[in-house]
Model the fold of this input.
Amino acid sequence: MRVLTRRVVALTGAMALAGGLAACGSDGEGDGGAVRLTIAMNAIADGKNAAEADWVEQWVIPEFEAAQAAAGVSVEVSFEPSGVDDEQYKSRLALDLQSGAGPDIYTLDGIWLGEFAQAGYVEPLAGTGADRDSWDGWEQIPDAVQELGTFEGELYGIPAGTDGRVLFYNRNLFAEAGLPTEWQPTGWDEILAAGEALATLDGVTPIQLNGGSAMGEATTMQGVLPLLAGVGEEIHTADGAWTGATPGVERVLGLYADIYGRGLGDPQLQQETQGRDKSFEEFAANEIGILVESDYFWRSVVNPANGVAPMADRDEAVGYALIPAAEPGSGLRGQDFVSTSGGNVRVVNPASDQSELAHELLTFMHSADAFTALVGDDPRITARTDVNERVLGADPMLAFVNEQVLPLTSYRPALDVYPRVSVLLQEATAAVIGGTDPAQAAADYQESLEGTVDGDDVTP
Done:
């Protein structure tokens, strides 16, 4: 109860920082006796996440209302858009939910799920029309992806979409360094060996492994967490303990020391405010050999059509490989390869006056037809394997993530304290990049961690 109280206080404290959204929960019947439902997400036409907003307004609402009318049910669905900072959206949404109002269906970042669940703002799907026994859509969502909507073993919502981290490599530089242009390392030693070969090229940074505080969450998601998975550990264990100065954490920091101590990475890049963006530009300019990133890099950064650092020869020049465990079989669940993913989850408001119909709308929004309509002509990875197989066929990289990465991925803990723990991990990598011994950096991290998680268990 003590932990529950602390997390509820943390959430309500954040809510006080922002004004609430207009209360939009169901209050019975609309015009002509129609049942009213509302959907809220941080998306708005001609603004943030515009494609998703357009999908809700132009496809989900009319199609669901028509389907219900055909079944003899009159429904009016409204959309409450937002186009604000994610934390502001979170605070406003929580303020409405605290008052017993709020939308019938809303979207959460996966790492907020535990915080909202412990505050009572979302409830498990068990026994609803969206649970594992009642909805056939779960057969199309890999078990690893289902974890995005799971907290403490209970399924609370349906994943809206996800991604995966891989090793991107520059085939042009690999060829120049005498390395294979079709590359799949099976352990960390092979990554370091490739880095040493790339180090013989003038003007090339062999490996970009995000580190330091300036990179923010990119350090944790594209660096620490997949590497930790590669030694068989998670930052927060199934029995509720945080991972402190374990041998695995020390080994992860040791890899940072190897890369930056040997001059295989650019330490200055990790200190710059725009360092991640600069690393994108350098990769596109054939100045970085290996880069750990999500499929976002392929879709939106080096995309030759509309990327922020477009590569006209992307499809030929950019290779991608699974992130290997430290050694074969040493990864989480005994895996040879690992990844980390993020994404959103959609849930039903437990205060909804029309919870049964709201769950029907929830599953409708995650049907194969709905996801296909959302993707349209812009291929992206959805939570559904059947849709991905149909819409990603023309993009081998995204198909690779769907088929090979998602089944073995892992997610960040859905706990309110996680962002603070993430900052500590970033600081530990910064220390090592700056020359601190990995064992000392791990010990310092644990000391800070024990103060941050405030009495929660920490595994040394």
User: Anything to note?
Assistant: The chain is about 40% helix and 15% strand. The radius of gyration is 23 Å. The mean pLDDT is 92. The chain has two domains: 2-163+342-411, 165-340+416-459.
